[in-house]
Specification:
By secondary structure, the protein is of the alpha/beta class. It is built from eleven helices and 15 strands. Helices cover about 30% and strands about 25% of the residues. The protein has a five-stranded mixed beta barrel with strand order 5-8-6-7-9. A four-stranded mixed β-sheet has the order 10-12-14-15, with helices on one face. Helix 3 packs across helix 6 and helix 6 packs across helix 7.
Length: about 375
Amino acid sequence: MSALDHTYAVILAGGGGTRLWPKSRKKNPKQFLKLMGKKTMVQVAANRISRFIPWDRFIVVTNKLYEKEIREQLPEVPVENIIAEPEKKDTALAMLVGSLYAKSKDPEAIIVNAASDHTLTNEKEYIRVMKAAIKTAASSEYLVTVGITPTHSSTGFGYIKIGEDLKKLGDKLSLFKVDSFTEKPNKATARAFISTRKYFWNANMYVWSAEAICKAFDKFMPKMYNLSKGLADKSSKEFHHMLPEIYKQAESISIDYAISEKAHNLVLIPGDFGWNDVGNWRVVYDLGTKDLAGNVVVSEGDKAHTLSIRAHNNLLHTNKRLIAVFDVDDLVVVDTDEILMIAPREKVQEVKELVNRLKEEGKEEYL
């Protein structure tokens, strides 16, 4: 059997995505939105991975609030493989639980961790890189991350610095030792990083064997691991039954802080396949199809109801009503059943200020 025969996909689909408010809200977070076509973000992500991992080896880790939505949107995934987190505890516990579930199915499991809300333009290259990562993880105890080759000096992503070039992985791919991590830098620092050609965007794309990640958690997060390790020996029914008590006691921490920044066996394979995490409305505009006036229209329905006159470079996200704009440029207009948001396109990354104000005023019904 090849490494692919032991490979499982763990898709994280429990996040909120507040920078895409007001479409992305607690009751309908961004992974369930149709931002790039007829399919939702989670459907696009899952279909991409199904090109090299069969559906019966998909594991989806989501919040219990979204379990029904995942069942409806991804009917190909076995129901028992949908892990409904009883409470939100960040990515470390989610990835550990996903890996332990895979291990309960196959002690030799290799796990491909993937987000439910990322886009990319070169699927063929993505699959090539992921297969190289799978082969690397299967033949060693390396924890493999795929670092995204930067296209500009973004301040919205974390960065991973590479060290020693360990070996070549076939045509044009190399395996590097990871030197260090940096959280979202300022513009000048990001420019300096890019100029060295030693820094990659951190997309939280990890591939590892169940055995290797269990050893890492045992070493660096022993309390979390001891709480959880018994899951690897349980049936699917017992596995789900044990989760509430584990989540109640476990720490909330990201995988980067818990494992990645501490592990000495972390390696990186560069990925250059047009990746983006669709983190805010400006990204939706940048990735969208533009008309002759530079406007992008997005609709979750079959028809988009818009009228624009002397309006340029706007993003119009329609709901059921007509959006009419004239003599305005560079705006984002997002219409929902309950909320209409209008903002300058260059400042939409600050939409979190609106979310925070609603929290302060106790208007939970709009979050």
